[in-house]
Design brief:
Blueprint lengths: L1 H11 L24 H14 L6 E5 H7 L4 H8 L9 E2 L5 H8 L9 H5 L1 H9 L1 E3 L7 E3 L12 H4 E11 L5 E13 L4 H19 L2 H30 L5
Antiparallel strand pairs: 1-2, 3-4, 5-6
Length: 247
Amino acid sequence: MMKKVTLTLACLMFASLVSAAGGAYIGEPANTNIKSQSSLQKGAKTYMNYCLGCHSMEFQRYNRVAEDLGLTEDEMMESLVLTDAKFADKMTHTMTREQGEQWFGKAPPDLTVIAKARGVDWLYNYMINFYVDSSRPSGWNNLTFPNASMPHVLWELQGIRKANFETHTDDQGEDHKEFVGFETIEEGQLNEEEYKDMVRDLVNFLDYSAEPAQLIRMSYAPWVLLFVAVFTFLAYLLKVNYFRDVH
């Protein structure tokens, strides 16, 4: 029961992402690769299992995602779609905005373009920098987004960690906390690298969702560059011919 409650709260409280202040801790780059179809497929699976129950992608459709990610209709509907949605439906959840506002004070935001709003590095670091904090209502805090209201939705996979800080006093006599590292309290189902790879795939999928057309644009890029190269060569030959008799 506690697991289900934590998972539900984690998904819903992800709404705080859209209103976080600046000064985020970015410890390492996401290093996503939107050209990797395998990564996008794994990221979509993670999103369907852990995020879509609370956060819709109203500007995406299942059939478009399947087409872009190289999935058949059967693969999409049998392996990734966990509701009674149809193949051509938008990626929405069953919870209404009114229910979200009534239960949690704020409806969970749509995450279709969250990667454009936040950036892939911010999202990646946010998802890997949770730690336990008994002073917070949810029991969790976040190094990238301090005092976030969202608990750690993936804690069973990453494990439970404590953040260690050192206090330093500046010249004005004010104390400042400096992060010095995490301490593992309970191991997760995945090791550190496996968990980071999973989060990287999830963020990669969110990056794709924010602009699906970039896959098409990137596939055209080599042909556009080839056209420009050929056109430049022909223009040079034309210029040489025009100015052949000019001394």
